[in-house]
Structures are given as structure tokens and as C-alpha cells.
Amino acid sequence: SHLQEIILSLSAAPIEIVENRIRAKDRSRLPSPEPAQTPPGQLFTAVRRRAHAVVLERGLQPTPGNHILLAADRDGAVKIGRRIDPQPVILTVQVEACCRQGIVFQQAGEGLFLAEAIPPGCFTAPPLPKDRLKPARAEASTESEPAAPAPAGSFTLNPEDILQSPGGGYVRRTAKGKKIDPKRFKRDSWSREKPPWRRGKTV
Length: 203
Prior knowledge:
The chain is 19% helix and 18% strand.
């Protein structure tokens, strides 16, 4: 009630109330973060469920112009995370591992800290649910699949059976690879019997 009275009495109130939440309108007047002198060994932060798999692979990266907000206790991280997801995924950040990689933590208030990024391997997270696991790529194996039977009367064509002759033509060969004499092929075609409708006619 006192805060409501301040908002109604001032023409430019420094705060605003939306439902049951209160925030400052002009955030530039808030105390600026300072490097944390003795941060706790573990910090906690929350991510959306749909970003769970990406965070495990790439680490935590904030949006441009922002920082990653971390809490000193798990309950604080859950409260912060519920602003973005009804059931957020809570990550446990190992401060010492981050410091070895050059990550600097800033104090942003009582029990709150900021970081520019949290690389992979510097935090622990719950495993992915089974329904969100990426399916393994099916590797094609020619050995596991039996070869289809060849149709009846077929044979495998050997590329060496077709040889280009110096004149640009091709040498005829039988299925067994024997060369066919072109003169014999023409002679056999000449000796074919004429069809009945052409018998007795001269051309």
C-alpha cells in the first residue's frame, strides 16, 4: 500500500507495479555491478526447456547487450527461471572452473551475480528427457543387407567385353566373351529365309 501511494503521489514515479511484480522504470539509476570478490563455489541459473539441448552442446550465451543472471542458491534460480518457463531447467555452475577459463563474475545484488558467458564443461545439468534425445543416424551397411537375387536368364556385363575399335566402332562379343566375326554376322543375316509375303517377288 505504501508503494501504491508513492506511485499515485509522484508525477514521475521511479517504480511501476504490474500485478504482483515491482520493477524500476529507470534502470540506469540502479547500482552498477562490481567484480565479485569472493563468489561462492557454486552458482545456479535457469534456462528454458527448449534450450536445454543447445546449452549442453554450446554452453550459456546471453542475448546481445545482456549478461547471464546467476543466483547463489537453487531456490533463487528457480524463481528467476519461472519468469521465462513454468518448469525451467536448473544448471549448477562451477565457479572455479569458470575462473580458470577467464570468466569474471560481477556482484549484482544480494545473492545475485552476472557473467558474460558460461562455456561447456563449467556447469552440470540434468540429463535430457528421452523424448528430446536426437535420434541416432542410421548408417547404411551393405554387408547387413542381402543382395537381391538376379532375374532368371540375366548375366553380369563385363566392361572389358566392349572394346572400342580403332575405327570408332565396337567389337561384337558373345556372352562368353568370344569375338564375333563381322563378315560371318553379315553372311548369316543374308542367308535368312524371306518371309512368306515376300516370296516370289523380286526387288
